[in-house]
């Protein structure tokens, strides 16, 4: 089958690779002239890593990703609330997490798909389906004919409304996220721990993510800072270090070191948005995939993993239904709508809880963390992971 994918992010490239391996002819188009991954890294949890293994990239991804063996929460002052090994989770689900630089994961996916199949600087502006195929139109004036169109152009999707038949509004989740990679160092956090500082409805995270994005092979931390800000305060000042010094004044010494050590030129500042769950992810000869289908808050670490699941499920649905494209799309829709809708809402609820939408709820969460031994947290992670297509 001739398939066109709009969007060369994690979801689009994963789908392209899965579909190529099923024998389909795939062309990927993206409006950007150069692939510059948004965000420093991706927490590829076990459900996403399992799919990468099935696609033949698992070993390479594990070699380039972080060795994240434990997790702990600390107060803003640096007092440990809970500290536990992730080994029981990994044993239960049969696969460790693979936190990795977005640039490295995207590079490996692009190499596997084949750069000759990816067309950059080629913006899709419209499409039209008919009984025999779909015509995809581009800003430069040319067209491409395909049997199936996959729209994976991200949270700001320009084509999502055409599939939904209405305007899909993005929903501000109430906080801004600054994220960056920094060289890993024991004076910031233990090298195999995922540390999260919480307090004042804010959060600082340091996650080990390997050395895949560095030529010198030095391991890095994926770091982010969350601050709840009202809508009128979302303007990007560009002075990230000054902003963070202000928001995290008086926090623990490792947080202060991190703020002084990070490179603001490498940092992204992102007001976090999601969308409401969609009742359907498909139309005639078209499927939504990734953030275009289910943009979600990053609070469960599942955005990239769900995009990977989309690509895998769609490829398997086409395989199972042979030449019945409508049946394959219906199967994809049936398998994905409820799962991604549930994760959107759970991530939104978690964002509200951890960022002080109701201060009493956030205070209760802090108290629960102090009594946590890891079992409750890992049980939630396990449920999310095992709900995926590969269990």
From TrEMBL:
Pathway participation: Purine metabolism; urate degradation
Keyword annotations from UniProtKB, A to Z: FAD, Flavoprotein, Monooxygenase, NAD, Oxidoreductase, Purine metabolism
GO biological-process terms attached to the record: purine nucleobase metabolic process; urate catabolic process
GO molecular function: FAD binding; FAD-dependent urate hydroxylase activity; urate oxidase activity
Source organism, top-level taxon: Bacteria
Catalytic activity annotation: urate + NADH + O2 + H(+) = 5-hydroxyisourate + NAD(+) + H2O
Segments forming domain FAD-binding: 2-342
Key word NAD present: yes
Matching Gene3D superfamilies: FAD/NAD(P)-binding domain
Cofactor(s) required for function per UniProt: FAD
Keyword Ribonucleoprotein: no
EC number: 1.14.13.113
UniProt cross-references to PANTHER family, sorted A to Z: MONOOXYGENASE, PUTATIVE (AFU_ORTHOLOGUE AFUA_6G14510)-RELATED
Similarity remark: Belongs to the FAD-dependent urate hydroxylase family.
Protein name, per record: FAD-dependent urate hydroxylase
Organism: Kushneria sinocarnis
């Amino acid at each position: 089958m001739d398939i066109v994918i709009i969007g060369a992010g994690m979801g689009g490239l994963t789908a392209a690779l899965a579909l190529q391996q099923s024998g389909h002819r795939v062309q990927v188009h993206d409006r950007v002239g150069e692939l510059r991954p948004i965000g420093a890294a991706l927490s590829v949890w076990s459900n996403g890593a399992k799919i990468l293994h099935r696609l033949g990239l698992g070993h390479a991804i594990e070699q380039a990703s972080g060795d994240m063996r434990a997790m702990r929460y600390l107060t803003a002052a640096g007092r440990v609330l809970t500290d536990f090994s992730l080994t029981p989770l990994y044993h239960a689900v049969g696969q460790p997490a693979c936190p990795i630089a977005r640039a490295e994961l995207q590079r490996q996916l692009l190499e596997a798909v084949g750069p000759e199949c990816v067309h950059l600087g080629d913006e899709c502006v419209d499409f039209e389906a008919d009984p025999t195929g779909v015509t995809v139109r581009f800003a430069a004036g040319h067209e491409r004919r395909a049997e199936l169109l996959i729209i994976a152009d991200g949270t700001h999707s320009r084509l999502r409304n055409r599939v939904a038949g209405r305007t899909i509004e993005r929903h501000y989740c109430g906080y801004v996220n600054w994220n960056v990679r920094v060289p890993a160092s024991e004076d910031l956090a233990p090298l195999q721990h995922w540390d999260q500082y919480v307090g004042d409805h804010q959060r600082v995270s340091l996650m080990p993510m390997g050395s895949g994005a560095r030529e010198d092979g030095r391991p890095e931390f994926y770091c982010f800072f969350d601050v709840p800000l009202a809508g009128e305060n979302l303007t990007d000042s560009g002075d990230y270090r000054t902003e963070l010094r202000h928001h995290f004044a008086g926090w623990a010494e490792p947080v202060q070191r991190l703020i002084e050590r990070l490179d603001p030129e490498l940092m992204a500042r992102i007001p976090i948005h999601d969308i409401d769950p969609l009742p359907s992810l498909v139309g005639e000869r078209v499927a939504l995939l990734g953030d275009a289908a289910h943009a979600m808050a990053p609070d469960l670490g599942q955005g990239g993993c769900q995009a990977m699941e989309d690509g895998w499920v769609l490829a398997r649905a086409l395989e199972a239904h042979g030449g019945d494209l409508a049946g394959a799309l219906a199967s994809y829709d049936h398998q994905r709508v409820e799962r991604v809708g549930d994760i959107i809402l759970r991530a939104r609820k978690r964002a509200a809880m951890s960022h002080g939408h109701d201060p009493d709820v956030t205070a209760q969460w802090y108290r629960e963390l102090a009594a946590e031994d890891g079992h409750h947290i890992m049980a939630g992670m396990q449920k999310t992971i095992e709900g995926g297509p590969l269990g």
